[in-house]
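FORM 7B: Structural annotation worksheet

SECTION A. Query
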Amino acid sequence: MKQNRNIRILGIDPGTTVTGYGLVQVTNNQPAILSLGIMKPGKFDDHYQRLQYLHGRALQIIDEYKPEVLAIEAPFYGKNVQSMLKLGRAQGVIMAAALYRGLPIFEYAPLLVKQAITGMGRASKEQVSYFLQNIFHLHDLPKELDATDAVAVAICHFIQQSKPASAREFKNWEEFIRKNPDRIK
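SECTION B. Predicted structure
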């Protein structure tokens, strides 16, 4: 990210029961939290109603806050295939809303998000929330930690985009090996 660039980042922590969102404004390379909250698709019994709700609310949030980019927590490995499928659908409808409004999308693994905020990839939701509350002096947070998780995704995007391009070139060792087979002996 350029030193004096102003950008709004919408962070999303998707879920089929509770989805968190957080809006971060970066001005002169300094992030500030403008808004955070939750969406509650779990208030609907039907999974498809939950998806419709998430899509509609994502569009409303994008239209209200006018972010320039969407940072969303990427899928992670889960033992329950049905839960992972439903989570993937929730992520998909939120991504579709962002694409419909022309926003670029960046996905971040939960471990990377936690590492960026707390320095520990295996930090708990409570630890992430604690760090953000202290760094950004947050008060009156929703009881659901999905809101601070969403802010963490947005801050993670800011941190990742602030790194030189060479530092962001590979997501993991597998990708490095795949792109550099001649360097492995």
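SECTION C. Observations
The mean pLDDT is 89. The chain has one domain: 7-183.

SECTION D. Sign-off
Analyst initials: ____
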